[in-house]
Amino acid sequence: MKFAITSKGDSKSNTLMHKMRTYLLDFNLEYDEDQPDIVVSVGGDGTLLYAFHRYKNRLDKTAFVGVHTGHLGFYADWTPDEIEKLVIALAKTPFQIVEYPLLESIVRYQHGGRETRYLALNESTVKSVEGTLVMDVEIRGQHFETFRGDGLCMSTPSGSTAYNKALGGAIIHPAIDALQLAEMASINNRVFRTVGSPLILPAHHTCMLKPVNNVDFQITVDHLTLLHKDVKSIQYRVADEKIRFARFRPFPFWKRVHDSFISN
Ligand code: NAD
């Protein structure tokens, strides 16, 4: 089996990365940074997001596992003092795979047929570069509302505990193939109206955002922020691809939610 390790880059994560690499090589696993079967991310959720984007072109061939060197992460759920256990499990046992849904976003532009496709593990957000964001929101080709406000956030189920949660969105179990659209400070009065609640869309529904006035936007995809000019539309749907996590022990989603947000 071929492995790669990504580190957050701080000294604690780097030390742990080197230790794991030595252990795994001792177990005769092969280090392959370009075509790994398994990617170990050492740091936090942000490090796993980075690893996901680095290996997003081979998601069907790569499984991920996360070690956290700070607080308990949603994706990074192994502790540094468990790494010997993790190394033995990696080297000796066939691991289970758990798949989580991803978000596909396609940005199309005013001129020409050019488009950009992104995959997100957590979410994609859209904000105006200047002033209020005004967007027509279409669901399955039907006009749903004209949104006015700070921004919109489309998240995956595993991303529902991240930015989406801060926006008052629901936490969705990642076994459900769905996306969630949450509002950021919508303008609601007698003139302007939005639904005001987060929407949960099933896998076969497409959501399209179409600019009403301004056509330049700040679009985020997980930790990445990009400026898009002359945007014609932004299309969201559940991606065909999934992320695969290697599971060596049970750590149910609701327990992670409990341990992260209630107590542990
Ligand atoms: P960061 O360093 O600002 O950390 C963001 C925090 O979000 C970290 O504590 C991380 O552990 C946590 N996080 C990331 N993914 C999570 C998930 N799926 N469930 C629960 N918590 C999660 O930024 P980063 O580490 O580069 O992560 C980027 C993420 O930050 C974005 O994808 C977005 O979800 C999140 N974010 C949140 C807010 C907010 O809550 N108001 C604002 C901006 C970005």
Characterise this structure.
The structure is a single chain. It contains 5 helices and 16 strands. By secondary structure, the protein is of the alpha+beta class. The protein has 2 domains: 2-95 and 248-261, Rossmann fold, CATH 3.40.50; 102-240, Tumour Suppressor Smad4 (Sandwich). Strands 6, 7, 8, 9, 10, 11, 12, 13, 14, 15 and 16 form an 11-stranded antiparallel sheet that branches. Helix 1 runs parallel beside helix 3 (83-92). The longest helix is centred in the N-terminal third of the chain and has 16 residues, at 11-26. The site of nicotinamide-adenine-dinucleotide has 16 residues, from helix 2 and helix 4. Belongs to the NAD kinase family. NAD(+) binds at residues 45-46, 122-123, 148, 150, 185. It comes from Peribacillus saganii.
Order of helices and strands: EHEEHEEHEEEEEHEEEEEEH
Q: Which runs of at least 5 residues are low in confidence (pLDDT < 50)? A: none
Number of domains: 2
Beta-strand residue fraction: 35-45%
CATH superfamily of the largest domain: Probable inorganic polyphosphate/atp-NAD kinase, domain 2
Please tally the helical runs, counting DSSP H or I stretches of 4 or more residues: 5
Which whole number gives the mean pLDDT?
Answer: 96
Bound molecules: nicotinamide-adenine-dinucleotide
Q: How big is the Rg? A: 20 Å
The separation of the N and C termini measures: 34 Å
Per DSSP E runs of 2 or more residues, the count of β-strands stands at 16
- Assign an overall shape: elongated
The CATH architecture of the largest domain can be named as Sandwich
The CATH class label of the largest domain is: Mainly Beta
What is the share of helical residues? Answer: 10-25%
The helix-and-strand class reads alpha+beta
Stated plainly, the CATH topology of the largest domain is called Tumour Suppressor Smad4
